[in-house]
Specification:
Blueprint (H helix, E strand, L loop, with lengths): L15 H34 L15 H8 L1 H33 L5 H9 L6 H11 L6 H8 L14 H26 L4 H8 L4 H29 L3 H7 L10 H10 L4 H31 L1
Amino acid sequence: MSATTVPTSGVIASGPRAYGRRYWMFAAPAAVIVLLVILFPWIFTLFMSVHDWKVTGDTPFVGMANYAKMLTDERFLNSVWRTLVFTAASVIAPLLLGVWAAVCFSSKFKGRGLARTLFVLPMMATPVAISLVWTMMFHPQLGVLNYILTSVGLPPSAWVYDGATVIPTLVMVETWQWTPLVMLIVLGGIASLPSDPYEAAILDGASGWQMFRHITLPLVWPFIMVAAVIRIIDALKTFDTIYVITLGGPGSASETINILLYQTAFAYYDLGYGSAMVVVFFVLILLVSLLLLRLRQREDLR
């Protein structure tokens, strides 16, 4: 009896290799959609930024004129300065308070779990809802904050209705909402620290401040850097809180880059100039992000 031969021609390859060669067929549609969603808006924004793009009328090509205009636009330059001041204050204050809160909550005391829960509640609400509540509290006549000030004998404040106090007031709102985020990040770092250095420090008679300065702070510094990177990027992009509470006012006292480019594009309908601001703002955020990541990598190498 002769052995039966199985024809091999026309047999479709199967197995892991076949799937490996054809996996791209399944991923390609999703990849194309993602690229279109990400790339098309940016390409179109770049296209509009080199045109005098208005809602009505022609859209002539102007080259780099929109970008050159920003160099002499006092309103834009002031918005850049406000953005930097707001970002710096909105990062430093939550970092200091968040680290302090993390150290406090790392200690064991009665009701610690409830205290932690209450402390993180501000970051659970949406920024728009929080902004509406704070707007009512900031009212000069009906707001509860001025009522508290006058009750203890202090003069009332104009809060967000005065150009001299609007930025510090907005920073206070940002600090109240995002200090819990810093606390959670740093608290996670403290929870992962070994106990041996602290036991040795206690035997040597070190004080609480000395243990924090020479043990806790150096060991949790990478976690603080992570919190700082997140806060800087987030503070640079802050829009909803400022827009809901002040609309960039009074006047233009709280008009950051985000608020100005929104007003330029959607209130004044100058889409070309607004698109140029978007590109510059994106480059600014990208440079800051790369700088922070570089600093973070240097910290890891030490």
